[in-house]
Amino acid sequence: MARREPEEHQFVHRRTGHIMVAYDQRLYVWGGFMELPHSEPYTVMTQSHTIYHSAIDVWVYDPLLDTWFRKMSRGDIPLQLSGACAAVHQHYMYLFGGLANGENDFSVITNSLWRLYLPTLTWELLTPDGDLPLACDKAACWVYKNRFYVFGGFGPADNLIQRLHRKVLFVRDAVYSRGWNDQLVYYDIETNSWVWPETYGERPTPRAAHSADIVGDTVYIFGGRFKNTRMNDLHCLHLISNHWSGNLTDSEVQNAPEGRSWHTFNFINDRKAVVYGGFNATQQVLKDIWILNIEKQLWQRVDNDNAKPALWHTSSIAYPGEVFCYGGLRNNILDYSVPKDHAEEMLVLRFSPPTLQRLTLEAICRYSKRLQRQITTLPQNLQLVLKYRSAVEEIS
Known about the structure:
Neuraminidase; kelch repeat; 38% strand; five-stranded mixed sheet
């Protein structure tokens, strides 16, 4: 049965440019902005109908209870940001970069690094040694061992580029004083320092709004935008040898996803990754789903009737084989003459069956009125879960 969210939940579910990570089988959502409904067109330079979400609030989704909890964080609260990137290492979430909410949103781009201690939701602004990454938004990140990696992004040029000219390629945009980069840098958690590793092989072109995920000792990077091109190239970097693979997508000999940015890419096991949605070269919002088999280097498109168009959404794996996709927009983000259509629900793409416990709980919830007497015989913790879910379902 469809349920109506409380009013504050309806507000928070209009969100894009946010981050979402999985921790302890829950999903943590922070940041981003919301497009308000409007009747009059507005221009790209004013964005008068954009509101950034609170930097204090952290929203937690519990899949078992199927509900959201609003939590208040503390400590060194970050700026209000969109387009930041985040990843989890042990009990911490590391957050880098993003476009800050200032008087001129197009100039306030950061290269700051924060971390959030997830058990207590306490923020800390980190000040590592070494050369900082370039300030940017729409970069991709991942964690490997005790390192938090950042690749690519879009932002301003600065004097650091000259010092790092052998390690970073920066390509300026033809309109703005910003551009795309191919930076690869990691934060060494043990030494509290930024490190610029030497790499080998054919490096990916600069890009932004791309995606990345790690499996074993290898990270895979897919798509993104560079200049006027939205790409479908696939690259991997072996993190022990620091060797790039070169482009692994050959669209002439195999079926492959079309070029895109603002999509998601997640490994569902050690052999297969899933690409969902994004924004293509003709400014269409996509809803297609593709599975990449890294052993065979083959793409396969799969059908899912629940999938809807989405760009600049987020995705995480809270349970094995299940991709949780949240937020984003359903229509052209660059068309400022029309109201923006937010994707307000949590979409779950399942590639393996849920546990027997979760299947049973979902079935009991559907028939809770018929099973009232039997429910009282269940263990107390399961009764509490069912009681909570039933209470939420009654909000209509």
